[in-house]
Amino acid sequence: MSIQELYEIFKRHPKISTDSRMIEEGCLFFALKGENFNGNKFALGALQAGASFSIIDEAIDQGDERCILVENVLSTLQDLSRYHREQLGIPILAITGTNGKTTTKELVAAVLSRKFNVAYTKGNLNNHIGVPLTLLSMNSDTEFGIVEMGANHPGEINELCSIALPDYGLITNVGKAHLEGFGSFEGVKKTKAELYRFMESKQGKIFLNSANTDLVGMSGETSKVYYTTKRDGEGIEGELLNSSPFMAFQVKFPKGWLYIKTNLVGDYNLENALAAVCIGNFFGTEPLEIQKAIEDYRPSNNRSQFIKTERNRLLMDAYNANPTSMRAALISFSKINSTPKAVILGDMFELGEASLEEHQKIIDLVGSLGFSLVLLSGDQFSKCKFPDYFHVFGNNSLLTNYIEDNRPSGFFFLIKGSRGMKLETVIQKL
Predict the structure, then answer these.
(1) Angle, in degrees to the nearest 10, between helices 287-296 and 269-282
(2) Could you please report the per-residue DSSP string of 320-376?
(3) Which of 265, 299, 267, 302 is nearest to 421 (CA)?
(4) What stretch of H or E contains 263?
């Protein structure tokens, strides 16, 4: 079956499922395969659960005419999403970066939604499966698409661009993350820059923080729209005013400065918010609408999320972590005018041979910042050298036991670690 023929079926059944346990009536089930699962085994069950068709790449003994056999289910899903994107013909913005891409995506979506019917990546669906699903969630009512792109190996951003075919691009920043896959910081930069190279080839535009020398150096000849965190820098200018704990900043529009008070904790969010301002301004969203969109946005999913418990205040930033984001979060937290302050940090994953060195650097930084209480969890932190007043635990269970036994009270906590550490499990104990 050709993609064009499959697309005609998709237009009649525009809901997609890749999980046989979550079948919507009338959807198309794509029987994806992974290291530990084979969706082909669940194709008939998906039909029984209400799917209209199952797309498979292995013949099924008990055949059903509603099973559509293709050469490769994943490639077919990607090809279908690319074809759908071409038929829609709408502007699409791709967002990637080491840190802040999800928060930036949500801020941009909030701002552009003041003017357009916007469809954007939900949650963290930013890989070779998530990007196609995001594209296929768009419909004839969609006026603007925002696609988040993640990567942990060279070539992945280029692959995702070849599927989403973006017209505009934004790299939030580049830092030390997924070093196990990228090999080095230069590998990170080269992979993220694949977005810039794609935009060059398509004669698209990128939104660029002119204060970030790494990004400027990577940008090449791409057509640029600038924003900046430097006074009298190139592009729309933003200035941090306060971050204790919620960030407030001002933006210089052609008609003057505009004050914006956010619900984001951490001064590192200035660049994320300013990117949203720049993009909204470029596409004609009125300054007061931009202001209201950003002020109304409230973070969730453990990203720069402020939580107040009966005993403590928490800055929950434990959706993910790498050396660059961990350092930024710690320095920003140390500047907040509040005492006593405490940190709960979990291991950072996917750092390869640099792991112990990078964890030791974080411990050295924490030791220099004067926090009243330091709790560290994880195998890598446990192998480092640390001051006597640090409390270091091999796993979250031991950490939780300490919290239950000591019941810390009256602290402002920063909680940050890699997703796999699941530090959100300790919140209920604080």
Answers:
(1) 140
(2) ---HHHHHHHHHHHHHSS-SSEEEEEEPPPS-GGGHHHHHHHHHHHHHHHT-SEEEE
(3) 302
(4) strand 256-265
Tokens 């954007």: give the residue.
Answer: 120
Rounding to the nearest 10 degrees, give the CA dihedral for residues 119, 168, 300, 112. -60
Kindly report, residue by residue over 120-166, the tens digit of the pLDDT.
Answer: 999 889 999 999 999 999 999 999 999 999 988 899 999 999 999 99
235 phi and psi angles, rounded to 5 deg = 105, -175
Q: For residue range 225-260, list pLDDT tens digits in order.
A: 999 998 877 889 999 999 888 999 999 998 899 999
How far apart CA 99 and CA 303 sit, in angstroms, is 11
Q: Which amino acid is at 64?
A: D
Cα gap 358→18, rounded to integer Å: 37
- What pLDDT was estimated at residue 224? 96
Spacing of C-alpha 391 from chain mean position: 30
Q: Angle formed by the axes of helices 185-192 and 194-202, to 10°?
A: 20
Q: How far is 278 from 238, CA to CA, in rounded Å?
A: 10
User: Radius of gyration (Cα) for the chain, nearest Å?
Assistant: 23
Beta bridge partners of 247: 243
Tokens of 25: 């009536």
Torsion of CA 384, 385, 391, 393, to 10 degrees: 20
Q: For tokens 């075919």, what's the residue?
A: 165
273-295 pLDDT, tens digit each: 999 999 999 999 999 999 999 99
DSSP state string for 79-116: HHHHHHHHHH---EEEEE-SSSHHHHHHHHHHHHTTTS
* Closest to 378 in 3D by CA, of 311, 428, 333, 426: 426
- At 299, list the tokens: 């973070």
CA 12 – CA 27 distance, rounded (Å): 9
What does the block give as tokens for 223? 């057509």
List, in sequence order, every beta strand (DSSP E) within 113-196.
Answer: 118-120, 144-148, 168-171
Tell me how far apart the alpha carbons of residues 40 and 20 are, in angstroms, rounded to a whole number. Answer: 10
Rounded CA separation 177/97 (Å): 10
* Cβ–Cβ under 8 Å, residues 343 and 413: yes
Q: How far apart are the first and last CA of the chain?
A: 56
Provide the token pair at 59.
Answer: 């013949």
